[in-house]
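Shipment paperwork, digital attachment
Item: protein structure file
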Amino acid sequence: MNAFTSFNPKAFQFLEELTNNQNRVWFAEHRSEYEQFVREPMKCFTETLSDSLAKKDVPLWGDPKRSLFRINRDARFSKAKHPYNMHASGLFTRTGDKHSSGVLYFRLDPLGSRCAAGYMQPEPPVLKKLRQGILDNPKAWLSLEKSLKRKGYELDYSYSLARIPRGFDDVPKEVEDAMKLKGWIIRKQLPRSMICSKDLIKEVTNFAKDMLPLLSFGWHALEKFSD
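Attachment content:
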């Protein structure tokens, strides 16, 4: 597979047209464009970014066969019944498997591309251990948040509980809000000019490097409080 350089603007053109043509006949007629401008470049991006992360000692990687989300939607349990995703995305984890905890996420989207990192919608047992990690060392958590803020990053606090979760007592006031989080997520918007630039791999790699302390804090908690 060829090394990734950048996405072609035609990737956005295809996804925009797909948004307005949510039917299987249209997609079948334009599948070659999907493969050429979206699917194959996403595979190349996954391999090239994985190599770049390894060189920066970031223990995350993606597998073109396992790490990318399908363009077809499973609409059985959704009110929205359109058959295709209107974006392309993938996950990078320590195992290369989408189900591993602690991820780097990349999304190619005509409405706003981005990368993100952290623990997104963790299962209850995982979330409990992440909270135990904060409570176990609140000073380290506060130091981590301050370090991230100095670099221009902030956790998304919009997905939080109204109260301290059950089972956690004597929570220091300064980490009460952190204990209410339903997940740890930091996002970085990527303008089209960056998506179509040869600097994209470097940009996402640097973001992942910046996110490594957050991911490592979580990995440590998951290991320390494992059953």
